[in-house]
Write a sequence for this structure.
């Protein structure tokens, strides 16, 4: 009668284990597995002979199998709780993240009987956690770039403001005519620099909010390129660069916004001029390719790490330079270039 009750109890547990949503397992005091529910075999494709003992660990991903086995054996020796995440090989060969948890079993007199535990598929949760972690990392990086940008902005504004302040003080002191002309030139030049900085900031804001509308007209590309070259000429002269132009006049026509095309090319030329050592070469070319016109800016500067090309067009991204090595500008020129080009 007692054996019948035990047998019925085991059959009832077997049915419960085989219909449970989790994979259930039981081990003996020596740590060897003596029971795995049907869902384990269906998930892993193992047979009872392959899964019993420590054979169940063979289905764990090689990168986690040693750690999982060690964690289980340590818990078994200490008769403590056991919990670990690892990737488990499915019958089709795909690995999925699971959490394996177990708790010790004790007899009526307190003797250790082994473990009972469960394995639950948490693959989607793991992927979501990884995505959240990646997003958090991206936000931290964006925050770091923003802080660097604000520091650079303060630096870029302070220099022209200091020059304007000094020139204004000189005028107030009743300077000689030559000094007055010099002071007026400084104020005009530095005010222009401040105006360009503010315009760049406003353009970034308009682009990100979709507030820029292009005014397209039939345009000779050479006119826009010449305009960009004229605008950047002072920086080219200041850094003693050679600007080599290679494009025909009156042959390359497109429907474009003249001001915005000139701005795009001007920003590319400014970026090339700032990141090229003095007395470098900058090449500006344009050519027809089928139904399009390809405009290219090439320089003899330090270049951009191929791994960073994409991020260099992101807001707040800058090249390998700090405030102390600033070559001028806010590092948003390429962001404007991409934003205008995508309109």
């Amino acid at each position: 009668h007692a054996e019948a009750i035990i047998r019925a109890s085991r059959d009832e547990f077997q049915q419960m284990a085989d219909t449970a949503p989790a994979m259930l397992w039981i081990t003996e005091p020596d740590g060897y597995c003596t029971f795995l529910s049907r869902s384990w075999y269906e998930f892993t494709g193992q047979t009872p002979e392959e899964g019993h003992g420590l054979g169940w660990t063979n289905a764990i991903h090689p990168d986690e199998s040693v750690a999982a086995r060690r964690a289980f054996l340590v818990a078994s020796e200490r008769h403590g709780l056991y919990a670990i995440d690892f990737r488990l090989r499915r019958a089709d060969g795909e690995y999925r993240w699971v959490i394996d948890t177990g708790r010790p079993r004790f007899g009526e007199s307190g003797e250790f009987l082994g473990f009972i535990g469960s394995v639950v598929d948490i693959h989607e949760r793991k992927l979501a956690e990884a995505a959240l972690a990646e997003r958090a990392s991206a936000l931290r990086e964006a925050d770091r770039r923003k802080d660097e940008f604000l520091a650079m902005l303060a630096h870029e504004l302070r220099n022209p403001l200091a020059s304007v302040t000094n020139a204004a003080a000189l005028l107030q002191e009743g300077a000689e005519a030559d000094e007055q002309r010099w002071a007026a030139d400084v104020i005009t030049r530095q005010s222009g620099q401040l105006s360009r900085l503010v315009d760049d900031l406003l353009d970034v804001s308009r682009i990100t909010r979709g507030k820029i509308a292009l005014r397209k007209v039939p345009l000779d590309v050479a006119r826009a390129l010449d305009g960009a070259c004229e605008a950047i000429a002072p920086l080219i002269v200041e850094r003693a660069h050679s600007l080599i132009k290679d494009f025909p006049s009156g042959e390359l026509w497109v429907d474009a916004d003249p001001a915005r095309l000139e701005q795009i090319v001007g920003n590319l030329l400014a970026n090339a001029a700032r990141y090229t050592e003095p007395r470098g070469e900058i090449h500006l070319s344009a050519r027809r390719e089928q139904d399009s016109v390809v405009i290219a800016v090439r320089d003899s500067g330090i270049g951009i790490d191929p791994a960073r090309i994409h991020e260099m067009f992101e807001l707040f991204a800058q090249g390998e330079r700090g405030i102390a090595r600033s070559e001028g500008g806010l590092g948003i020129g390429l962001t404007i270039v991409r934003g205008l080009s995508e309109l």
Remarks:
- Strands lie at 23-27, 33-36, 82-89, 95-106, 112-121, 217-220, 242-246, 253-256, 281-289, 292-299.
- Residues 321-326 have pLDDT under 50 and may be disordered.
- The chain has nine helices and ten strands.
